[in-house]
UniProtKB/TrEMBL annotation:
Gene3D superfamilies: Cytochrome P450. It holds the Pfam family p450. Belongs to the cytochrome P450 family. It comes from Gossypium hirsutum (Upland cotton). This is Labd-13Z-ene-9,15,16-triol synthase, chloroplastic. It comes from the Eukaryota. Keywords: Heme, Iron, Metal-binding, Monooxygenase, Oxidoreductase.
Length: 430
């Protein structure tokens, strides 16, 4: 690729070599030129070089922000937004519903309220548009990445566009942070209120002890990381799951049976049901196996020259781990192209199990920090869509399984379904 050597890993054994055996050497993500300016030189988690500060930030997010206690505390927000989605779809029974649009608006509302609470002044459509723009800008092929010597010239204007787009978010965060600072200075902070992620991060910033403190720029960068990484991935995965279920009605029937047995038709799907919904979990895993949302993970860059599978891998080259191919490897998976969630009922493979044939969230030092939240959101969204409605399609149509390859593996065509209400009363969603 231009003047930069790119290597693609297509086998689980070589993926293990990169993500486990030589993890320390491959623990840097490839940082696109456009993001360096936009994220204050890569101080966020995603683009930060491997090292002690990166580990501290990761630990802080995983142990504090994504802890069971913290995720349980913001469950009411997930519940409220999923109920809102079901009610909205209920108002459209019998007509065509763009499933991705519903999921995407819900995931965005969940992320925004989880990150900084409710702010009625914020325009959801504006946020969605701005996030889409950032993903397009940073995902666009950039000459500066292929020929780093040209980076200072920003020939396509991608770096300046990225900077402008990121600045918009930082401006929004700054005014929210200013309000929080005023509230703190006025001593008006209420005790025992649920602390959103922004408040937790700010308290670490204010606490200021050497090990855990965060600079204000790091607070803003982490908030943006979570917005970008968390809002499109979950709805994309759930849209793929619905598509597979509509293509495989026997699997849909099996899932409905499980939901009726565990949840019943007088209740809504809740977080507390998730551990018992084993078939739902298997459907989500099988979906992520066939349609990994990040098909090439996030490319890695070795910090020194090394050898992988007998080949020399030079320092500074770009290493792509092809989860899409690995997760369809016939040596590992029986009948690999078949959508067969049952395969996950027979094994204890999970997202962190060090099975290098199944890596939808990556693995090793840079494994996704949002796995716990993503698991909960995917289960709640998919479980609620299937439990609340029977889904049909317009006459003569079949859902397409065609994908568009990119940083995020999207469907070529959005899934449009026709819902019919299944539950006896809508009061349950109030
Ligand atoms: C279905 C949902 C999701 C999928 C499939 C997914 C997948 C991934 C993958 C493949 C990586 C790169 C891992 C590697 O290099 O080995 C990653 C990194 C990351 N993800 Fe996720 N992700 C999801 C949801 C989320 C959510 C909800 C958040 C946060 C709220 C999040 C935050 C991050 C961050 C901050 C990183 C960078 C970690 C680092 O650089 O050390 N992700 N994710």
């Amino acid at each position: 690729m231009g003047s930069v050597l790119a290597i693609v890993i297509n086998s689980p054994s070589l993926a293990k070599e990169v993500l486990k055996v030589q993890d320390a050497i491959f623990a840097n993500h490839d940082v696109p030129a456009a993001t360096v300016v936009g994220t204050f030189g890569g101080i966020n988690i995603l683009w930060r070089p491997n090292g002690s500060r990166c580990n501290q930030l990761r630990k802080l997010v995983v142990c504090e922000i994504m802890s069971k206690q913290s995720l349980d505390a913001c469950y009411v927000l997930r519940q409220r937004e999923v109920r809102r989605m079901v009610k909205e779809i209920h108002g459209k029974v019998g007509s065509s519903v763009n499933i991705y649009e519903q999921l995407s608006a819900t995931a965005l509302r969940v992320m925004m309220s989880t990150l900084w609470g409710d702010d009625p002044s914020q325009d959801l459509i504006e946020f969605r548009k701005r996030l889409d723009e950032i993903v397009i800008t940073f995902g666009a092929p950039n000459v500066s990445d292929f020929f780093p010597i040209l980076a200072p010239f920003d020939l396509q204007g991608i770096e300046s566009k990225g900077k402008e787009q990121v600045s918009w978010f930082y401006g929004v965060f700054e005014s929210m942070i200013k309000n929080r600072r005023n509230i703190r200075d006025d001593g008006k902070e209420k005790e025992n209120i649920r602390k959103d992620f922004m408040q937790q991060l700010l308290e670490l910033h204010w606490r200021g002890d050497e090990k855990n403190s965060l600079s204000i720029n790091e607070v803003k960068a982490l908030l943006l990381d979570m917005m970008v990484a968390g809002t499109d991935t979950v709805p994309t995965a759930v849209e793929w799951a619905m598509t597979e279920l509509l293509c495989h009605r026997d699997k849909m029937t099996k899932l409905v049976k499980e939901l009726d047995m565990v949840v019943g038709n007088q209740n809504t799907v809740e977080d507390s049901h998730i551990p018992q919904l084993v078939y739902l979990d298997a459907v989500i895993k099988e979906t992520l196996r066939l349609h990994p949302v990040a098909p090439l993970l996030i490319p890695r860059v070795p910090s020194k020259t090394t050898v992988i599978g007998g080949f020399t891998v030079p320092k500074g080259c770009r290493v792509f781990i092809n989860a899409w191919v690995i997760q369809r490897d016939p040596e590992l998976w029986d009948d690999p192209l078949r959508f067969h969630p049952e395969r996950f009922l027979e094994t204890d493979i999970n997202y962190r199990s060090n099975n290098f044939g199944f890596i939808p969230f990556g693995s090793g030092r840079r494994i996704c920090v949002g796995v716990s939240l993503a698991e909960k959101m995917m289960a709640l969204l998919l479980g609620s869509l299937v439990h609340s409605f029977e889904w049909g399609l317009s006459e003569g149509t079949k859902p397409s399984l065609e994908d568009k390859f990119g940083i995020v593996l999207k469907k070529t065509e959005s899934l449009v379904g026709i819902p019919v209400a299944r539950l006896p009363n809508l009061e349950q969603y109030q």
